[in-house]
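Example record used in the benchmark description.
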Amino acid sequence: MGIKNLHDFLYTFFTENQCEIVHQTDQDLKIQLSAELDEQLMNRPFYWQYVKKMGLEGEPSSLYLTVDPNQKQEEDKNNYEFVHFGSPRLQQIFRILSSKGKYVKLYQTVATTEHTPLIPWLVLNLKISYIGKDKREVLKSIGINMVNGAIINQFIHAIKHIEWDVKTADFCYTVTPLIQLKHSYQRIMQLIENMLQQEQHEWAAASWKQMEKEKNLLKQFYQSDDEGYHNHYEEELEAIESMYQPKIDISVVNGGLFFITQQTSFKLLHS
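Model output (structure tokens):
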């Protein structure tokens, strides 16, 4: 997943949480935070305690984020904070998403006077962690049509311009899924596994090589039959394996059911 994807993720997160995007480029975001997100992100508990106690409205901060590691300070004297996979700020955002709940149910806003079916889509936003000598995280957003099984990659970005509501619009009704929720989930996870199998995993080979090198050095150092040495050896061997043994972890950040018109579903599939 490239830089632009992370930028889009940040854009979606802040706009969906009632923040104003004051300015943006392909790599930068100037964000006027909502009061709620200021409390959660900016570490100003005493300020907000005072504001609430005095019955004041409060002034949320602005946040300057970039996914460009070479971003320079601009004339307005505000430093951009570099956000990348694994950065503290991104982990903070993930925690906020988890605390808000992992499941939503939304319906496309439709202005119609005719009976209009809404197609159910299961959407999973996933975090793939490549763990080894180096650590890398990738975000995937996969949506599956629960009627015909069609799958769209980067689904959350494809639907960001669609308006939503928590209830069905007048004259709209939901179509009963032909693919059960459990099976829809399994299809998405199988897709992710297939994608991972097709990737080149030089990182894993490099991590495994480093692990074997560290093990050999450790073995040379602990050349003794002393039981105390043996216990230390086993502990350090376990630490080396924990640090370097390559593995891939797939976790669900959040997800939900999205009910979308047939026309919009067709456009999404062919855009």
